[in-house]
Amino acid sequence: MGRTLQNTMINLGLQNACDEAIYQLGLDMEELEEIEEDAGLGNGGLGRLAACFLDSMATLGLAAYGYGIRYEYGIFNQKIRNGWQVEEADDWLRHGNPWEKARPEYMLPVHFYGRVEHGATGAKWVDTQVVLALPYDTPVPGYMNNTVNTMRLWSARAPNDFNLRDFNVGDYIQAVLDRNLAENISRVLYPNDNFFEGKELRLKQEYFVVAATLQDIIRRFKASKFGSTDSVRTVFDSFPDQVAIQLNDTHPAMAIPELMRIFVDIEKLPWNKAWDITKRTFAYTNHTVLPEALERWPVDLVEKLLPRHLQIIYEINQRHLDHIASLFPNDVDRLRRMSLIEEGGTKRINMAHLCIVGSHAVNGVAKIHSEIVKTQVFEDFAALEPEKFQNKTNGITPRRWLLLCNPGLAELIAEKIGEDYVRDLSQLTKLHEFLDDDLFIREVAKVKQENKVKFALYLEKEYKVKINPSSMFDVHVKRIHEYKRQLMNCLHIITMYNRIKRDPAKLFVPRTVIIGGKAAPGYHMAKMIIKLINAVAQVVNNDPVVGSKLKVIFLENYRVSLAEKVIPATDLSEQISTAGTEASGTGNMKFMLNGALTIGTMDGANVEMAEEAGEENLFIFGMRVEDVAELDREGYNAQEYYDRLPELRQAIDQISGGFFSTEEPDLFKDVVNMLFYHDRFKVFADYESYVKCQEKVSELYLNSKAWTKMVIKNIAAAGKFSSDRTIKEYARDIWHVEPSDLKIPPPNEPRDAAEDKTPNGTAA
């Protein structure tokens, strides 16, 4: 979620009043804002997307709740110590959190372990261990519409009789100390992005948030007029018309068997009715096609932790496979491919399959990704129910990612087209009228230059490196992962360095290359990539021949509040994943909206950005999805590129020969070995195309006016990428609710006039 103060002031329309009041107290608002800790309760794109969605849902007047875990320790703070990433705990609650309100009156029990008894009245889950879920509510204000939604985060608490009931009778002290075991559930965020680690504590976290949330939703449904009680028993027929639950990836997939357990075991609904209601309630968003990221939980772990849920999953699977067998008799391979249970070695539950079978809608997050989901990853399921599969291209909130982080540009746009674009970003197309307005072109360039100067001062303060603010700011910030190909950027840096050294007198367009992002602590290759970037920076930044022509900075501890500083100052946005691997990307959209040009592959939302702005207004290079597939058929041979391309060969020889690590010449042997013999993401295959494309970037940068015109074309085409548009599509196509642009009267005005205007509908 990042910081809350400035976002709240903007959405409430109070920023100028607060700035002035604080100024009159002799204080500086910006200094005050810098004191707030980021709430870093997610890993990367998926968690930030949820935050943008909350902002848009409130702004569109949807009755929506964001549910998650109140981690005591969020994503680690990254320190760089002699070039290596070192992790520190993110003790973000140390000074308290003024935005949250504990709600002990809504505390709920969550059960683990135990066993299942089958009797005349059905199944009973007994002898469980209980953990309490304590909710903390954070307000989510819409933009200037007097709507405030809720983000409810659960914290784990041990019950007061924890370990004191039964076996631990004598040891009171130890029993109280053991409360930590239960409360560890919400202690820390697992720091993996796009990688599945099948740990028991992680499965506990996933079930914890699901079980508490579903109880909360059902409590709210029963308290409403819809949960009418027929002879003491609730009628759930209208449940899917009143409740929509969106599964953000497979992490909350246990919600499907959990809702079935509630309906069948507790509410005593017949299976078929329960299953119909469950399917109509859930929808699933897929966020990645990388096989190592797909959740596949071992059956024995689920059986130990959630025995009843395993039985329910088996029953869901049996009925699912019976259905497929009736449609495709004797096709055992299809049954194996489509089963929720993967046999062979340790039996595992394929959580994506569970989500598809248990949901009425499945979506990818960009056109190209949704096609890959349909035709490759889940082709059998899409063949069965093509109407279930949709696309919902991701978006970003223009409140945080333009108004808040780039007030200069936001104001300049408002002067030209009015202020309405903040709620309807498609209005940015009106900027096309000013493409030949020389004054506007100069003003856009001026705002960018001011942002660069401000960020350059920040960099010089933090990194003690002299930055040339007129150099091109070439920025690559995102989680460090092989598929995002920070290594290819690194090879380009080395190539630029070698060109300067070869001919120091030749014209060179000066660059400041900024790379930032966190590596999962257990991801060895990602950590080596960080070390390599820092080793290259060390050489480049201290070579007097290079001087101010080229500077390399590794941006420490990349997070939302740092993104808000670097994105408005960026000239060139690096979006260079291997085609077919980045589901959407959202950083790409933030840079586009903030007046950077994009160098990128035809991957994720880059494809739609090129479609909106015109491919000639992005720097597109490299293999397309079809080319990657073709290369896979032929067999990718990295050696061939090394042999054919002298500049690539020189760069690789320098890395492997210890040019960047004189004290430990073979420091990067693992990296080089990977690039030659098991590079799934084909860095060498796109190197030549990338370097040539970068030459075109430098050439255009020399012509400030032509560059800025292209920038304006990009900003004018960024309207599609508002999360407001994304949420409207979810609301209409999946949740079946109508967004409302009604401005609720403020609390100081009488309400009677507005009573009948309140729209009713599904709560998402």
From TrEMBL:
CDD domains: GT35_Glycogen_Phosphorylase. The keyword Glycosyltransferase applies. GO terms for cellular component: cytoplasm. One of its GO terms (biological process) is glycogen catabolic process. It catalyses: [(1->4)-alpha-D-glucosyl](n) + phosphate = [(1->4)-alpha-D-glucosyl](n-1) + alpha-D-glucose 1-phosphate. Its EC number is 2.4.1.1. Pfam families: Phosphorylase. Residues 740-764 are annotated as: Disordered. The modification N6-(pyridoxal phosphate)lysine is found at residue 590. One of its GO terms (molecular function) is glycogen phosphorylase activity. Keywords: Allosteric enzyme, Carbohydrate metabolism, Glycogen metabolism, Glycosyltransferase, Phosphoprotein, Pyridoxal phosphate, Transferase. InterPro entries: Glycg_phsphrylas, Glyco_trans_35, Pyridoxal_P_attach_site. Its cofactor is pyridoxal 5'-phosphate. Homodimer; enzymatically active. Interacts with PPP1R3B; recruits the phosphatase PP1 which dephosphorylates and inactivates PYGL/glycogen phosphorylase. Belongs to the glycogen phosphorylase family. This is Alpha-1,4 glucan phosphorylase. It comes from Aegotheles bennettii. The gene is Pygl.
